[in-house]
UniProtKB/TrEMBL annotation:
Pfam families: Orn_Arg_deC_N (PF02784). It catalyses: meso-2,6-diaminopimelate + H(+) = L-lysine + CO2. Substrate binds at R298, Y302, E329, Y356. This is Diaminopimelate decarboxylase. SUPFAM superfamilies: Alanine racemase C-terminal domain-like (SSF50621), PLP-binding barrel (SSF51419). Residues 24-266 form the Orn/DAP/Arg decarboxylase 2 N-terminal domain.
């Protein structure tokens, strides 16, 4: 999408607005599957939590994608989008056994990461095969909030507790049909990922009925020009070779599974906002926009950097601006960032807004959540309406005093 197309979207649908380029999603999906084209059975489970709009799910479905879900609501979204239960894996954390049973009743692949839940589920439903999420005790990821495979993580069953797993499997008679791990997001070092994969292979040898091994995801995407990213092609070549070797050792062709979210949709998204005012203080020039961390929380929560462009004045002289939102507390998108000269009414575009932006949005300060637009076949399609005041109050119950 060029600047003119984005500006027209801002005019037609208002700001702020999330825009997703379907061509980028398709390209990233094909890039990942191509990297592992030497593996006979590959399964891409898109992580719904990254961007859960039903039209995006349907688009991925046309590419052959399956889904990775973390809640019963995401499972139902997948079913609503046309995915069959066998194309959905459910990997919750800290949920009740009742929710897990409800999802299992839908026919979805269950992935369990708690010894207590594993034993309860196996005792009641030994006929339902389950996957087990392993914690490999590998510290990986670009931020402590998204590093989930280390020893202090709440996720997964420790590799040191494999004997406990085997005892539960033997006592309940349940079947383990998959092994899974997810070490974290923004992984750069391919060798760290391969090291964790060896732990998963070693674990897999304990289970004779496996159908798949799920290596999670966490591939880093670039956030600015010249930024580093995971070398997916190198990783694909090295892991494919090792996975094929393991399948021969295991005696059966297994499915190699991944659960990318950010990798598929992050770069596809742009978030468009309008400048309400330019405010000069004694030391800073603030560009105040019609949005805040209620719409894009990643910079405040993770310290993430999103490239910001002034698409209303792309060739102007660059100046330093701190881009801030309208939320009534510290609400900073960028500090002292070089951006072409900004005036009131200009449209700014935040890159890498496809993943964990709308899905983490809120109504904080009673603000409306923005519209979502999908750029598909060179045309902008509205895929979610902007909220209204009725949406804010529709579930509230007024008392009479």
């Amino acid at each position: 999408m060029n600047n003119n197309a984005l500006l027209k979207i801002a005019r037609d649908f208002g700001s702020p607005v999330y825009v997703y380029n379907s061509e980028t999603i398709v390209s990233q999906y094909k890039r990942l599957t191509s990297a592992f084209n030497k593996v006979k059975k590959i399964k891409i489970n898109y992580a719904v939590k990254a961007l859960s709009n039903i039209s995006v799910l349907k688009l991925l479905g046309t590419l052959g994608s399956c889904l990775d879900t973390v809640s019963i609501q995401e499972v139902k979204l997948g079913l609503e989008a046309g995915f069959t239960p066998d194309k959905i894996i459910y990997t919750p954390n800290g949920v009740s056994i009742e929710e897990i049973e409800k999802v299992a009743a839908l026919g979805t692949q269950i992935n369990i990461d708690n010894l207590v839940i594993l034993e309860q589920f196996g005792a009641k439903h030994p006929e339902i095969p389950v996957c087990i999420r392993i914690n490999p005790h590998v510290m990986a990821g670009g931020n402590t909030n998204i590093s989930v495979g280390h020893i202090d993580s709440k996720f997964g069953i420790s590799i040191h507790q494999i004997p406990h797993i085997l005892r539960i499997v033997k006592n309940t008679g349940m079947t383990i049909n998959g092994i899974h791990m997810h070490t974290g997001s923004d992984i750069l070092d391919v060798e760290v990922f391969l090291y964790a994969s060896e732990i998963l292979f070693e674990t897999a040898r304990n289970f004779k009925d496996l159908e798949f091994i799920d290596f999670g995801s966490g591939f880093k995407v670039p956030y600015k020009k010249g930024d580093i990213e995971t070398n997916v092609e190198e990783f694909g070549e090295k892991l494919s070779k090792r996975f094929n070797e393991f399948c021969k050792e295991y005696g059966r062709e297994l499915t190699l599974a991944f659960e990318p979210g950010k990798f598929l949709v992050s770069e596809a998204g742009e978030f468009l906002v309008q400048v309400n005012a330019v405010k000069q203080t004694t030391s800073t020039v603030f560009a105040q926009v019609d949005s805040g961390f209620n719409h894009l929380i990643r910079p405040m929560l993770y310290g993430s950097q999103h490239e910001i462009r002034n698409i209303s004045n792309p060739k102007g002289k660059e100046r330093f601006y701190s881009v801030v939102g309208y939320i009534c507390e510290t609400d900073t998108f960028a500090n002292n960032r070089r951006i072409t000269e900004i005036s009131e009414g200009d449209i700014l575009a935040f890159k890498n807004a496809g993943a964990y932006c709308f899905s983490m949005a809120s109504n904080y300060n009673s603000r409306y959540r923005p519209a979502e637009v999908l750029w598909y076949n060179n045309k902008a399609h509205l895929i979610r309406k902007r909220e209204t005041f009725d949406d804010i109050i529709k579930n509230q119950i007024e008392l009479t005093f």
